């Protein structure tokens, strides 16, 4: 059996879709998978079981990236195509069973929207796949004797979603005073823009482990699995943390918390005050985030 799975160009949405893949892996234990996604998300599937290939869709003018995908898939007869992009591709290929997204934005969690494609309720939670080598490297980076470790993710893909660096620093000092000793791990993506957003936190927290923005997606996931807590802006890293099983606190302002709140076994979120879509992250209080982090840790310990 061969399954074509077309998912997002964005890391966060791709992470959310992994719950469907995990469901399909268990439902069809002999199936082989081809994943089609954008370049940022491609590394997420590197260690997925029974993955034959990942087709990286690099955006091209006039939507020619869809033509490229069709050309790479037209020679195969697919038993199932799951298209989370709502494209015409499944109708241009030899496909036994087509499942896809239709329509525009709907109210409710994104993970539930995706689950409806396969008629699943409750929706399957996202997962991550890491290698033994990545887990070994994470243990070397975050040795047990120097923790507990807390991941801080002070960046996002647009400025309106970013809690100011000085608030992250103030949060850290208040959190440690209330919780006890811990060591921060600063996570951010590749490139100068991400580095600049994270630099204020890195510079202010002298004992922070700076991961440098150069780790692969699954290496970051392995690092997150070593952390007792994640606190960060609404971002792909937030969704990755929740999928990795780390207690995850997402910080929200103008972005759509109803749709993109973290989904996992131990998650929570805090929303800046203000009208939906217009809340200012600068109005999100440090004390609120500290309280939410401590409550999340307490709840996760009771649950597990």
Automatic annotation (TrEMBL):
Gene3D superfamilies per UniProt: Glycogen Phosphorylase B (3.40.50.2000)
SUPFAM superfamilies: UDP-Glycosyltransferase/glycogen phosphorylase
Gene Ontology CC annotations of this record: cytosol
CDD domains given in the database record: GT9_LPS_heptosyltransferase (cd03789)
GO BP annotation list: lipopolysaccharide core region biosynthetic process
InterPro entries: Glyco_trans_9 (IPR002201), LPS_LOS_Heptosyltrfase (IPR051199)
Listed Pfam families: Glyco_transf_9 (PF01075)
GO molecular function: ADP-heptose-lipopolysaccharide heptosyltransferase activity
Keywords: Glycosyltransferase, Transferase
The organism of origin for this protein: Novacetimonas maltaceti
Name used for this protein in its record: Glycosyltransferase family 9 protein
């Amino acid at each position: 059996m061969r399954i074509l799975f077309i998912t997002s160009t964005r890391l966060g949405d791709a992470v959310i879709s992994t719950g469907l893949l995990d469901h399909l892996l268990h439902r069809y234990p002999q199936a082989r998978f081809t994943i089609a996604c954008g370049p940022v998300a491609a590394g997420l599937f590197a260690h997925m079981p029974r993955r034959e290939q990942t087709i990286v869709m690099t955006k091209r003018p006039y939507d020619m990236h869809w033509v490229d995908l069709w050309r790479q898939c037209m020679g195969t007869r697919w038993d199932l195509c799951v298209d989370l992009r709502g494209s015409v591709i499944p109708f241009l290929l030899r496909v036994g069973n087509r499942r896809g997204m239709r329509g525009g934005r709907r109210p409710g969690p994104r993970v539930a929207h995706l689950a409806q494609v396969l008629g699943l309720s409750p929706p399957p939670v996202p997962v991550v796949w890491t290698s033994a080598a990545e887990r070994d490297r994470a243990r070397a980076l975050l040795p047990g004797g120097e923790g507990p470790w807390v991941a801080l993710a002070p960046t996002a893909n647009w400025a309106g979603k970013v809690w100011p660096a000085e608030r992250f620093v103030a949060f850290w000092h208040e959190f440690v005073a209330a919780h006890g000793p811990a060591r921060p791990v600063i996570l951010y993506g590749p490139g100068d823009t991400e580095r600049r957003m994270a630099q204020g936190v890195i510079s202010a927290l002298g004992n922070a482990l700076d991961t440098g923005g150069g780790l692969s997606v699954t290496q970051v996931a392995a690092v997150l699995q070593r952390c007792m807590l994640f606190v960060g802006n609404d971002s792909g890293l937030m969704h990755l943390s929740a999928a990795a099983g780390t207690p995850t606190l997402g910080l929200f302002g103008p972005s759509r918390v109803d749709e993109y709140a973290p989904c996992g076994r131990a998650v929570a979120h805090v929303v800046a005050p203000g009208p939906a879509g217009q809340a200012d992250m600068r109005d999100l209080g440090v004390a609120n985030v500290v309280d939410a982090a401590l409550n999340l840790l307490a709840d996760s310990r009771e649950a597990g």
